[in-house]
Design a protein that fits this description.
- By secondary structure, the protein is an alpha+beta fold.
- The chain has 5 helices and 17 strands.
- It has helices at about 10, 15-20, 30-55, 200-230, 370-385; strands spanning about 65, 80-85, 90-95, 100-110, 125-130, 140-145, 155-160, 165-170, 185-190, 250-255, 260-270, 275-280, 295-300, 310-315, 325, 335-345, 350-355.
- Strands 1-2-8-4-5 form a 5-stranded antiparallel sheet, with helices on one face.
- The mean pLDDT is about 95.
């Protein structure tokens, strides 16, 4: 007997559970905050179609994950892809790594918002980056994924822990203008048969997953940023390694606050050996601040280092006329995230809150002036570079 199908809006009722997460935001009674959260819910809900309808573990394919459109705290240097997998299957990734700074692959239990619990212990987590891969002179490579390394296999291999269901891939770029993104495919190596039409029950189940995804994601991310403020306060960094995330990466989160006419100076020593590092701004809801048409992030390629060897960035609501402006896109509160990846030390940055009119009194005397024309050109180049990267 065919299942009884309810009206569509009844399946979408869990979206209201996501709205209830307003209680965990910093300004729950602010109408602007409420509509920001509505927008965030729609973003996560629209992404959920890719997550639950595009592919399955027997018929894998790349789906977009986080990028300049789906901005739930992505690294602006990264284009993220998602693919469902199973520890009961074997897979082969093949293609060309391009010329981006790094390509990374991680197998893990789940992603934020999915119906399976997120494993922050790292028990289901494995990763590999292209520095560990055998890649030929043309940039071509193959990578085998399976629960156990096949006997006699000497090539690239990444373990899928029992129960892991997610493959996340990152194309990490340093020089957005000139680096070329990878071109890769993924295939299941086990006989699985043709991809079948979804049954009514399967479609309804996936719609239910879509409707619940925003609430599940917000229930994870809001407490993460609130916890930073509760433990160390505002305008203070709290270095951390997250279980179930890059084993070689230290995150540098901080909750920031400033007002009109103020600036925040982020200052840090730099590791002597630093394979990759960056800083970015997020809005108050854990989304990356607009980073195509705003200068809300920088990295080790674009950042200008001071003459004393330190990195200094300035967060301000208006252009401060100095290098390394981090533009918060109109938000007076949010989070900063930095990253040290595969570095020989892990310095903790500091944040100093100053009057914008007195900014240069707190910077090295030889800090260059960035003119409005120079800033406009910097932004034009950023927009062109970001739009030319793969996002879908």
């Amino acid at each position: 007997m065919a299942p009884a199908i309810k009206p569509l809006m009844e399946y979408l009722a869990p979206l209201e559970e996501a709205v209830a997460q307003l209680a965990n935001t910093w300004r729950p009674d602010d109408p602007a905050c409420r509509t920001d959260v509505y927008r965030q819910i729609m973003m996560q809900f629209s992404y959920a179609y890719f997550a639950f309808f595009h592919a399955d573990a027997d018929h894998p394919d790349w789906a977009p994950l986080w990028n300049p459109v789906f901005t739930l705290q992505p690294n602006p240097d990264d284009i993220y892809l998602y693919c469902p997998i199973s520890s009961e299957r074997r897979y082969r990734i093949s293609g060309n790594r391009g010329t981006v700074k790094m390509v990374t692959f991680t197998t893990q239990l789940s992603l934020a918002g999915m119906p399976w619990e997120n494993d922050l212990t790292g028990a289901h987590y494995n990763d590999i980056d292209d520095g560990d891969l055998q890649v030929d002179a043309n940039g071509d490579f193959e990578l085998l994924l399976s629960a156990e390394r096949p006997e006699g296999h000497q090539g690239n291999w990444l373990r899928i822990a029992p129960g892991a269901q997610v493959l996340m891939t990152r194309y990490r770029s340093y020089d957005w203008e000139n680096e070329v993104d990878p071109r890769m495919s993924i295939e299941c190596l086990d006989p699985v048969g043709p991809k079948q039409r979804l049954s009514p029950d399967q479609i309804v189940e996936r719609i239910d997953h879509m409707a619940h995804m925003p609430e599940r994601a917000l229930r994870l991310f809001y407490p993460m940023q609130n916890g930073i403020r509760e433990r160390v306060g505002v305008n203070v960094f709290e270095p951390i390694k997250y279980g179930g995330s890059f084993t070689r990466q230290v995150y540098l989160p901080a909750v920031y606050e400033l007002e009109d006419g103020e600036a925040l100076i982020v200052e840090t020593d730099l590791p002597a050996q630093r394979r990759y590092w960056n800083f970015q701004l997020n809005d108050p809801y854990f989304n990356a601040a607009e980073y195509v048409y705003r200068l809300s992030s920088t990295n080790g390629h674009y950042a200008r280092v001071s003459s004393d060897g330190k990195f200094r960035a300035v967060i301000a609501l208006e252009d401060p006329g100095v290098p390394n402006w981090l533009d918060p896109a109109g938000f007076k509160q949010g989070t900063i995230y930095g990253r040290w990846y595969d570095c020989d030390s892990e310095p903790t940055p500091t944040i100093k809150r100053v009057r914008l009119a007195e900014l240069r009194d707190h910077l090295p005397s030889d800090t260059p002036i960035v003119t409005p024309d120079e800033r406009a050109e910097e932004l034009r180049r950023r927009v062109r570079a970001c739009q030319r990267r793969r996002r879908w």
